[in-house]
Amino acid sequence: MSPSINKCKSSSPLLRFKIQKLLLSNPLRFLLCAVLLCLPLVIVFTATTSTKNVTNRFIHNLPNNNTLQLTEYKEDEIEKELLRVASNTNPNPSSTNPKKLAFMFLTTSTLPFAPLWESFFKQAPKTHFTIYVHVDETSSIWKPHPFSVFHNRIIPSKPTARNSPTLAAAARRLLACALVDDPDNYMFLLLSASCIPLHSFRFTYHTLANSNKSFIEMTPQDLGSFYRWVVRGAHVMLPEVRYEEFRTGSQFWSLTRKHAMLIVSDTGVWSKFKLPCLFYFLEICYPEESYFPTLMNMLDTKGCVHATLTYVDWTGSDGGHPRMFEKDEIGPQLISALRTARPKYGEDDDGKRHDPFLFARKFSSDSLQALMAIADHVIFKD
Fold it and tell me: What GO cellular component is one of the record's annotations (predicted)?
């Protein structure tokens, strides 16, 4: 096994590398202006035609022009080897050892709620969980103290940015490292730096370790999902990803080992999603919210519960960001309300499932003290 793979097995510090950027020339800016002037015609057209007819017409009539693309995501040899090794790991956890939950934190800096998670994991047997953290070292160098559960759990990472394939690529690296690191990892949970737990570890473990399905949101298709399908160009996703197969959903999910292996093994669908979006579509370019739901919908939609277990409030969202819970809102009533809420199951909703939210986001970093004050007698008390 190569030294780079051993780095994942020991969760060594970050691996640095540079992402190239392409500059737009003046002629391209002229083309951009022309495209933007045409957008009102598109809006008028959609107002007078059904969504289905709109998508069919667009597929055949939009220009297949990729000249305004930014940078394609390209794996280096180390990352390719990591994904290859991960795709060949044992798909079945040990029948004699306890199943483990792999908590995978994706952050660009530190984990502001690390003390809360420390308390969360303090209740847990070490044989029941593992931790992996992807940190953008170009933004922050975070070194957890030696007694922290996060010590030596930072994986080889790369810079990430919104409106690009880098966040989806980071999640794939987290999955690959978790697969290689521990054969007993059964359920893989993607979490953000602004996430908090809503229940005790015992409750969380019971919910996920006893499930034979992944939890990943797949929202019903609408005109917005069609625009997300064509953000790289009208015909770019074909033939690998037909619009009928395309889905969107929350960036945060919980996946079984089987589905984690399907993701790290995938090259065909990923070859499309790692392409950059057209410049004038960047504001709706979120590959991390479409790659994973689409792949699972294509490969094993019935093996998934079409919902995320991470609560988020999109009321009053700004710039693609959900509502932020502030420190003055923190209290038993808020935690109770978030626990009482139930996920939306999209096209999979038969009215029979009532899964609990296990996590919630986004919380302001200055709310840590308020959360710690109610951790033991509210958050971790089920």
Answer: membrane
Domain that holds residue 233: 77-374
Indicate whether 16 belongs to any domain: no
CA–CA distance from 363 to each of 4, 105, 237, 322, 366 (Å)? 35, 15, 35, 10, 8
Q: Residue 39 has what pLDDT?
A: 43
Cα separation, 295 vs 370, in Å, equals: 39
For residue 367, is it within any domain?
yes
At 9 the pLDDT is 57
Picking from 192, 181, 175, 201, the residue whose alpha carbon sits closest to that of residue 257 is: 175
Has residue 40 been placed in a domain? Answer: no
Residue 271 tokens, joined: 């070859």
Tell me how far apart the alpha carbons of residues 163 and 321 are, in angstroms, rounded to a whole number: 12
Count of domains for the chain: 1
The answer as to whether 265 is a domain residue is yes
**What is the value of pTM for the model shown?**
0.84
pLDDT less than 50: residues of the chain: 3-4, 10-69
Tell me, what CATH number does 233's domain have? 3.90.550
Query: Which structure tokens are listed for 156?
Result: 């080889």
Instruction: Label residue 344 exposed, middle or buried (CB < 10 Å: 0-12, 13-18, 19+).
Output: middle
